[in-house]
TrEMBL record:
<feature type="domain" description="Transcriptional regulator SgrR N-terminal HTH">
    <location>
        <begin position="2"/>
        <end position="107"/>
    </location>
</feature>
<dbReference type="InterPro" id="IPR039424">
    <property type="entry name" value="SBP_5"/>
</dbReference>
<dbReference type="GO" id="GO:0015833">
    <property type="term" value="P:peptide transport"/>
</dbReference>
<dbReference type="Pfam" id="PF12793">
    <property type="entry name" value="SgrR_N"/>
</dbReference>
<protein>
    <submittedName>
        <fullName>ABC transporter substrate-binding protein</fullName>
    </submittedName>
</protein>
<dbReference type="GO" id="GO:1904680">
    <property type="term" value="F:peptide transmembrane transporter activity"/>
</dbReference>
<dbReference type="InterPro" id="IPR000914">
    <property type="entry name" value="SBP_5_dom"/>
</dbReference>
<dbReference type="Pfam" id="PF00496">
    <property type="entry name" value="SBP_bac_5"/>
</dbReference>
<keyword id="KW-0238">DNA-binding</keyword>
<dbReference type="InterPro" id="IPR025370">
    <property type="entry name" value="SgrR_HTH_N"/>
</dbReference>
<feature type="domain" description="Solute-binding protein family 5">
    <location>
        <begin position="172"/>
        <end position="381"/>
    </location>
</feature>
<dbReference type="GO" id="GO:0003677">
    <property type="term" value="F:DNA binding"/>
</dbReference>
Amino acid sequence: MKLHSQFLKLHSHHGGPAEVLVTLDELALTLGCTHRNALHVVRKMVELNWITWTPSRGRGRRSRLVFLAASEDIALESMMQAISSKDISSALEGIRGHTRTSALQDTLQGWLLAYFGHHAEMQSDKRIDTLRLPVTQQLHTFDPLYMNLLAESFVSSHVFDGLVGRSGERGKVIPGLAHAWETDEARTAWTFHLRKEVLFHHGKVLTAEDVVYSFERMMSTSQRTLYSYIFKEIQEVKALNASTVRILLKKPNELFLPFLCTSRAAIVPRDLQSIGENVFGRKPAGTGPFKVVEMSEDTCVLEVFPYYFQGRAHLDRVEIIYVPWGLAPEPSETGSGFHVIPNPQAAGAGSLSKIHSESSVRKFVTCNTKKKGPLSDPLLRADILSCLHEAPREPFRHSAGLPAAALQIATIPQYAGDAEYIAARLKQHGYACKVVSVSPEEFKGPIRLQSDLIVFSLLRDQDEQLRLYDLYLTLSQHIEPRTRADIEGRLHMISREPDAAARTEGFRIIEDSLTRDHQLHILYEKPAETAYLPSVRGVTFNSQGWVDLRHLWFPPEL
């Protein structure tokens, strides 16, 4: 693959004309090597019929170089070899300038469909079923406490289990590590009865102490994590005996049980303390249907855990390979951490199966009215948000005039395009703006309170109510006290409401109130990108809406 990269370097510097006159000094400078090595590289390319090279005698004399191979073909071959050898990172820089041509996109798209998907082979008279999945997000950790990416959550959901789970798309809460549970009349004391003889991947038997450790670890973390508003309301977790756990809440919360269905609430072994959190994130031991046997920058390999308490999975092995296809500077905005087929009909939709259930992404902008500034004026706020409507608007006339300073728009890199669109629209109407894009971790800090407008996103999946609660709780931090008190009051009512439909209505009332008060403006909503697999059997979805690998199977060829 190094030779491929060297060819692409030469082509990017000297390609284009039918032939190039170049000195050996220039080639050595381009390749970053000695004259001798440059000449060796040229000879190897000539042997492969990638180029022709007609040398001229004498130092400094220009020789004739002709490129015979297309850069797209060499880039494709390099990527294919890289993926096959699971050494993708070594090929990325070399093909960076060549991956955006439509011809290469189409060719690699077809090759990906052939390489990834299901593969079967015989080993010691046994059929080994392997599923290869390409992901567009680099995997860093599978520790439920520290993971941030959808692709990480997908893997984690197959390595770990929670006390309870969800029944696919219907949303019904079903037993997990706990085979039964009950709560008291006040709905603050929850008692969970654990299954017996459940094994972790490293051979340890699950006990109530592991559950206690998992929740106390969540409660004590200083990490800013999704849904922390729920586990921070836990008062005590106690093991009543080896198979019974009682969790006491500070106050009733009807979102507590749905939270336990998420991968964030997965149970980890108590002896994680001796392993160390950094090591555990890359070499985890859970109770799930698959165990991690390999983890590198580009590849994660899962093998079936034959002693899984809910039955052995049909697949034997899952290879998850990081393919940053497209090499776009902006991360995906649409909620899919998996390789997405742009036109599944052209690829043969009849031979493809969806890898996740239907969901959508809603983008919106909110106003920071807690900050002393122009947005504390409701009339000015209304005019600013009206600039984002496509319909014509009346010119704004206000005694105070336009803001003297530029409005600051805060967001994260995934939504920078939306923030720039907002800035451009406002500029058309006389409002100066500047966009500040920070990492998701920094975005949780003071940057929002220092800005005038904040661009948010909401993934509308099976955990939508949990996400809405988290969203409005966060949003209330940069809203003036009266409105904040109203939102927090309604959120309190929602958390006490046992009926899911009534909770949905409560969230709708909050949205309508913020919209009427010109605190919130929905930019758009669109379906999340849908990834596909070559056609499989047994497709069901987990609580996050991703395909459940445990039930997938492939009929043998007869």
